[in-house]
Design brief:
Strand order of the largest sheet: 1-3-2-4-5-6
Shape: elongated
Oligomer: single chain
Number of strands: 13
CATH superfamily of the largest domain: Histidine kinase-like ATPase, C-terminal domain
Helix content: 40-55%
CATH topology of the largest domain: Heat Shock Protein 90
Strand content: 15-25%
Radius of gyration: 35 Å
Distance between the termini: 93 Å
Structural class: alpha/beta
CATH class of the largest domain: Alpha Beta
Length: 404
C-alpha cells in the first residue's frame, strides 16, 4: 500500500514502514494520517509474528509502528525479532490505551515512543524525531568507527616508527663508532703537525662524530622507553627514587643538592622505567640550577584512581610559553655551550608515563623554579591493603636528604 504527500520536498522522501496491527481499519487510519502529513509511504502490514519476520526480511523498514496488544502476542516482541534478524529500526507503539507506567517500561525496554490512537496527529512528529535520532546515532557510530580505524592505523604507524628508530640507531652505531675512532686517532697523530686551520677542521670532525654518537644513543634509548611487554606490578616509589639517586650520586655531591621525599606511594608500574623518569627529572633539577644549591622536593597525593606525583626544584625555571614544548624530542631551550644534552630526557619521561596510562606536565609559574606533575595508576584496594600492612613494619618517616 502506498501513498504520496504534496508538501515540502523534504517530506516527499519515501518512508518505508511496517505496520503491526490486527485491525485493518486502524492501520488505514495510520496511513491516512501519514499521507495527510506529507509522507510518501511504502508500507507492509503484519498481524502475526511470522508475518512481521517475513516483512522485515523482504525490506528493511525505516520505522516500525506496532499496536501494543495484538491478541496472541504483543508489539514489544517485534524488538526481539528485529534483534534476531539484525534489523535496526525505531519502534513506535500506536495503541488505543497505554498507561504511563506501561509506557515508561516499554521505552526502557527499547521502544522509541508511543502514540495513542485517538491522538494520531502526533504520530508524524514522533516519526520525524525518531528518524532524526536514528540518523544522528548512525553518524555517531560511523564517526567512532572512523576514529577507531585512525587510532589503530596511528598505533601501527607508531610501532613501525619505533621499530625503525631502534633498528636504524642500532645499525648506525658500528660504522659511526669507526668514524669517531679514526677521526680521534687522526687528531692525536697529526695535531700540531699540520697548519692551524687543519687542526680546527679535524676538531670539528671529532666533535661532530661524538655528538652524532650521543644523538644515536639517545634515539635508541627513546625507542626502547615504554616498549610493550614490560611487566607492570606493585612498585614502591620510595625505592625507585633511591635507585635514581644512587645513579646521580656524583652530580648530587658535586652540586650540593638536597633531595627530599617521604611517604611516596606504591603504584602499578615498571620500576626500571619509573626510575628513569625520576632520574631524568632530578637530573634536570640539578643541571638547570640557579645560584643556590639545588633543592628538589618530591611529594604525592591520591586522587580517585590515580596518584598525582609532584617534583619541584629551585632552578632557573621554564618559561610558561615553553611548558608544552619541553616534552618534544630533541627540543632544547638553551645552547650546548650553556647546558649539555640533546633535549631527549623529558620526551622519554613523557613516553614512559603515557605508557603507564598517566600524563605529565609542567605547572605554569612565574619566576625561578620548576614543578613537574605526573599521574600513575594506584593499586587496587586489595593490593593496597596488603601493601599497607607490609609498610607497618617499616619506618614511619621514610625520607632521604642527600647533601654534597
Amino acid at each position: 500500500m502506498t501513498g504520496s504527500g504534496t508538501q515540502t520536498a523534504a517530506e516527499k522522501t519515501p518512508l518505508r514502514v511496517v505496520i503491526v496491527e490486527d485491525n485493518s481499519a486502524d492501520a488505514e487510519l495510520v496511513l491516512r494520517e501519514l499521507r495527510r502529513s506529507g509522507f510518501q509511504v511504502s508500507s507492509e502490514e503484519a498481524q502475526t509474528a511470522e508475518q512481521f519476520r517475513r516483512a522485515i526480511r523482504k525490506s528493511v523498514p525505516e520505522v516500525v509502528l506496532a499496536d501494543y496488544n495484538l491478541g496472541q502476542w504483543r508489539g514489544m516482541e517485534t524488538l526481539e525479532i528485529m534483534r534476531q534478524e539484525g534489523v535496526e529500526a525505531p519502534l513506535i507503539l500506536v495503541s488505543g490505551a497505554l498507561g504511563d507506567v506501561t509506557a515508561v517500561e516499554c521505552i526502557k525496554l527499547g521502544a522509541t515512543d508511543y502514540v495513542l490512537k485517538d491522538a494520531l496527529a502526533r504520530l508524524p512528529i514522533s516519526i520525524r524525531r525518531a528518524l532524526e535520532e536514528k540518523r544522528l546515532r548512525e553518524e555517531r557510530k560511523l564517526a567512532l568507527e572512523a576514529l577507531a580505524k585512525k587510532a589503530e592505523a596511528l598505533t601501527i604507524s607508531n610501532q613501525e616508527l619505533e621499530q625503525f628508530a631502534y633498528v636504524a640507531s642500532h645499525d648506525l652505531q658500528e660504522p659511526l663508532r669507526m668514524v669517531a675512532s679514526y677521526t680521534q686517532l687522526l687528531a692525536e697523530k697529526y695535531k700540531g703537525k699540520l697548519d692551524q686551520q687543519a687542526d680546527k677542521y679535524i676538531g670539528y670532525a671529532v666533535e661532530g662524530a661524538v655528538r652524532m654518537q650521543t644523538l644515536i644513543q639517545d634515539l635508541l634509548a627513546f625507542s626502547r622507553a615504554g616498549r610493550p611487554g614490560t611487566e607492570m606490578k606493585d612498585t614502591d616509589c620510595n625505592f625507585v627514587v633511591e635507585g635514581a639517586l644512587r645513579n646521580l650520586q656524583a652530580a648530587v655531591s658535586e652540586s650540593g643538592a638536597l633531595v627530599v621525599y617521604k611517604d611516596l606511594p606504591h603504584v602499578l608500574g615498571n620500576a626500571p622505567q619509573l626510575q628513569q623518569v625520576f632520574q631524568n627529572l632530578i637530573g634536570n633539577g640539578i643541571k638547570f640550577r640557579g645560584g643556590d644549591a639545588p633543592l628538589i622536593q618530591i611529594g604525592a597525593e591520591r586522587r580517585e584512581r590515580d596518584w598525582w606525583l609532584t617534583l619541584s626544584d629551585n632552578g632557573i625555571g621554564i618559561p610558561p610559553e615553553f611548558a608544552d614544548e619541553v616534552f618534544v624530542i630533541f627540543k632544547r631551550l638553551h645552547t650546548r655551550t650553556e647546558y649539555s644534552g640533546n633535549g631527549i630526557g623529558l620526551s622519554i619521561c613523557k613516553k614512559i608515563i603515557e605508557y603507564h596510562g598517566g600524563k605529565i606536565w609542567v605547572e605554569r609559574q612565574e619566576g625561578p623554579g620548576t614543578t613537574f606533575r605526573f599521574t600513575l595508576p594506584a593499586l587496587g584496594e586489595e593490593t593496597a591493603a596488603a601493601v599497607h600492612k607490609n609498610q607497618e613494619s617499616k619506618d614511619e618517616n621514610h625520607a632521604t636528604s642527600l647533601v654534597g
